[in-house]
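ASSEMBLY PREDICTION REQUEST
Request ID: AP-0331
Submitted by: J.K., bench scientist
Number of chains: two
Total residues: 226
Priority: normal
Notes: Please return the full assembly, not individual chains.
Input sequences:
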Amino acid sequence: DGGITQSPKYLFRKEGQNVTLSCEQNLNHDAMYWYRQDPGQGLRLIYYSQIVNDFQKGDIAEGYSVSREKKESFPLTVTSAQKNPTAFYLCASTIARAPNQPQHFGDGTRLSIL
Amino acid sequence: AQSVTQLGSHVSVSEGALVLLRCNYSSSVPPYLFWYVQYPNQGLQLLLKYTSAATLVKGINGFEAEFKKSETSFHLTKPSAHMSDAAEYFCVLTGGGNKLTFGTGTQLKVEL
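STATUS: Completed
Returned structure:
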C-alpha cells in the first residue's frame, strides 16, 4: 500500500544536539511538507518542497533545515538553534500545484528534550 | 490573506446525538476546503473535501459537510455520534498553490 512513513515515532534530543527526522513516501508525489503541531495551535508549516533539489521556508523555519535529494525522501533536521523543539512533527505529501488535492500525512514523530 | 476559524475548541456530545463542528473561512480566491480527523499520536486522515463540484459533500464514517458561500462556512455534521468518533478535527483551506491554512482544531468528546 502506498503511504508516508515517518521514523522514529519517538525521539529525544540532548541540549546542543542536532537530530534528524525521516520522512519517506511511495505515493509518487512531487510535493512534500513538514509541519509542527503544538497543543491548541493547529499545525504550522516548517518547510516544503515542490520538486527534487528545491525547497522553501514555511512560517516557522528558524532552527530547522531540510534536504530533498530524492523524490521519495524529505528529512528534517532540528538543529541546536531551535530552542523549543518539543512538539509533534508531521510530514505530508501531495501532487504538486494541485490545490484541490488533499495532503497525505504520516503518523508523526514526537520529539522531546532530555 | 486566508484564514480558518473553528468555533469551539472542545465539543461534547452524547452517543447517538448529532455532531456539529463549525468552520468559517476567509479567502480572496475560490477556496478548496477539507476536513481531517486526528486520533491521538497519529497523523491526519482525510474525512472529506470540497472542490466546487457539489456544495454538500459526503465523506467517510458517515460525516458530511455543506459549503455555504454566503456564510463563508463549511460545517461538519454526522447524524449520530459513535464512541469511535472521539478525536480532534481540523478544517483546512487552500486558496492557491498547495499551502494549507489550518484551523486550530476541535476536540470531540463522545459520552455514553
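REVIEWER COMMENTS: The radius of gyration of chain A is 13 Å.
SIGN-OFF: pending second reviewer
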